[in-house]
Amino acid sequence: MSVLAEGVDRQPTARVIALRPSAGRHAAAGRSPEVVGLGPEPDEPRHGTTGRHATAPAPVDAPGTGARSLVRELEDLTEQMQAHGPLPSLRVDLRELLAAWAAALVRLHRTPLTPTTPVAELPWVLTEPLPDWLDVLPGDTGPVWAVRAHPGIRRAVEETRRAWLPVQWVHGDPTGDEVVVTRTRGAVRAVLLGTARDTPEGPLAPARTGRSGCGDPRWDVATALDWLALALGPALDPAWQLDPVATFAGQYRELGGDALPDRATAVARTLASAVEWTAHLTLDRDPSEDERAWLSGLWSRPLELVGRTRTTAVAGRRS
Questions:
Q1: Cα 146–125–252 angle (5° rounding)?
Q2: How far apart are CA 191 and CA 196, in angstroms?
């Protein structure tokens, strides 16, 4: 099981945000693709811009394109499972969707680098201090103070920064909101938003967003796993014994992916998610009781991952 799966809050309160379009998920980095589809920002060039980095023109779920957002696909799939149970055909469909997403990441990471490849920006959590407004959050938001004060979490962030290896093309934020799925003759294919379409000569590199470019592919994979743990995992009944995080990681390995995150990267990724979701749910409004409970689960995840690291280390010394 991936390290990111170990700190997942699977309680019913987590369902409050599961699989909802995340308009605020990318608040620190621009609008969510669930809001803008594949369309450019107002100040970006419109479709028809020439060059390798032209953005894809068709909106998600546009009639006639055959493309649907992965979020919509997963919503439909989980609704069918809730109505009919985890039928073998539905399990296969889930595996194919996750495999297509994993394949899109593998293809992107194998895109050749050139002398003109931009250097991707580091994730904010590796370069910036945690925001001061965390100090004034109500206590029922979660163990925010404990996370900020924990030396193991600080070490994990520092270790991830020191070990950063900008060696492959990366997307920078390949959450499920950034994935478009097409089905052709029974085959499922996924494309990451912000990446140009494939050509007969091979996949084109992603459009320049600041986060994309030459970076560490382990952060991409950690981001995908984290999204599955937060958005899809809570929507699946534990009795079904489905683990989308483990399934994605397994498919990624089978497809030749070699950038699974280590525990330090997982801690840093879960910390970033906790801050980002807390900003989205608390800065401009009062969160509901369910949302506060969900946030409390988010803030517990980095602590649980660090706690498991310490337990493993102690057991290793005793043996």
A1: 105
A2: 9
Nearest CA to 53 out of 226, 224, 213 is that of 213
Partnered with residue 264 across adjacent β-strands are none
Contact present, 249 and 295 (Cβ < 8 Å): no
Residues 126 and 218: beta-carbon distance below 8 Å: no
Calpha distance 267→304 (Å, rounded): 9
Q: Which helix (H) or strand (E) segment is 215 a member of?
A: strand 213-215
Strand partners, 75: none
Nearest to 223 by CA among 97, 123, 75: 123
Residue ranges in the chain whose pLDDT is less than 70: 1-65, 195-209, 308-319
What integer pLDDT is reported at residue 55 of this predicted model? 31
pTM for the full predicted model: 0.77
pLDDT at 182: 93
DSSP summary character for residue 142 = -
- Count Cβ neighbours within 10 Å for each residue of 279-295 and write b for 16 or more, e otherwise: bbbbeeeebeeebbbbb
CB within 8 Å of 87: residues ≥ 6 apart: 80, 81
299: buried, middle or exposed (CB in 10 Å: 19+, 13-18, 0-12)?
buried
State the DSSP string of 255-267. TT------HHHHH
Whose tokens are 């390798």? That residue is 52
Identify the pLDDT of residue 59.
43
